Amino acid sequence: MRSGRRFLFAATLFLAVPTGAGAQDDAGGETNPEYDRIRQEAVRAYQAGEYDKAAGLFEQAFNVQPLGNLLYNIAACHDKAGHQVEAVTWYQRFMDAVPDSPKRPEVARRVADLQESLKGQYEDVTVNTEPSGALVFVDDKARGAMGEAPLTFKLFPGSYTLIAEKEGFEPTKRKVEVIAGTPAMFDLQLLPKGAVATVNLRVPERDADIMVGSRRIGKTPLEDPLRLPAGDHEVVVMKQGFATWKGTVSVRGGETKDVVVSLIPEGGDPDDYAGGGGGGGSAGIWPWVTMGAGVAAVGGGVFTALSAASLHDQLETKRKDGEAIHPSDVDTGNSLVMTTNVLYGVGGAAIVGGLVWWLLDDSGGSGGGMTGGIAPTEGGSAVQLGGTF
After folding, report:
1. Which H or E run includes 228?
2. β 184-189/151-155 pair status
């Protein structure tokens, strides 16, 4: 009896797709030329028995103009091509999208037949959530929830995206693999909304890979901001032809943070790209440049100090020998002493200021930014730091 019903369905299907695709897809609305061109090409492919090609073309038509009955045509192509799992998936999407279609009873019977033939190939999938009671979806929320966790359902071996949602908590997604012959169990954790931060990761270069910890996020530009739990997160941005960017992004629950990443071309000068990072590397190399300048200034102070000491010894010898000391020698000594004090002050201040700058930037503080400068003072200098921390 089942085989007879499958034969009747297939015969009706063959007649429905070529002649009914346009009528079903129209649904009383206007279509655009691109959609009409692709759909007509899909109908010709179906009539020629090129079912895989026809399925792909109907999917293209659906992407141009997402009309519900195109889902039926896609499923019909997979059915004719012998792709049972894909046929079930698209038939179910059709029934979800067009629940009042007169073809629904017929399609439901076909889905039941296909599922019966695939029965031995499905695997049990158990999903637990913390907290429990979250709604669980597979791949597409539009297809409806599988139920509330904890729950067990059946899936054909393959790759899926599990989605869990619960009021008051951040939705979570997880890509999973269902392996033939192996029952699967997956645990999903949902975090309270107040424990999660929003991070806008801005990378000017397109198609750069982004990883947070060991998890691959995707390629730039990201469609949505990152939602990260409070704490420190290691972020890596990679693109061929550019040096890998690494940084630590520290966030607090509920805050929104912008992180700007400038990738440096391989062999490029880092100075040309300093200041483009965010989070753990937003200040670039400038704190180190500041500290380097401070070390150089202190080194200069050591040199002038030695020169002043040498001149002092010479003048002291002249004084003991009763020789006349020219006033210009005294002025030179005083100048060397003053220069030494200034270099020591500026150098020390630069070293301390650069270190403070680096520590503040490395701590991931999300203030409104920092400005700095070195101001001479009587007998030395002072570091001026401004901004919000």
Report:
1. strand 226-229
2. unpaired
β-strand partners of 382: 375
- In a 13 Å sphere around the CA of 94, the CA atoms on its Cβ side amount to 27
CA nearest neighbour of 139 among 178, 109, 167, 103: 178
Q: Which of 251, 279, 250, 372 is nearest to 262 (CA)?
A: 279
Rounded-to-integer distance, Cα 175 and Cα 163, Å: 9
Rounded Cα distance between 291 and 354, Å, is 5
In the 8-state DSSP scheme, what is residue 161?
Answer: E
Distance CA 261, CA 270 (A): 13
pLDDT in tens, 208-251: 899 898 888 888 888 888 888 888 999 999 999 889 999 899 98
**Model confidence over 124-151: pLDDT tens digits?**
899 999 999 999 998 877 767 888 999 9
What distance in Å separates the CA atoms of residue 58 and residue 371, rounded to the nearest whole number? 58
Residue 178: CA count within 13 A, CB half-sphere? 20
Query: Most distant CA pair in the chain: distance in Å?
Result: 132
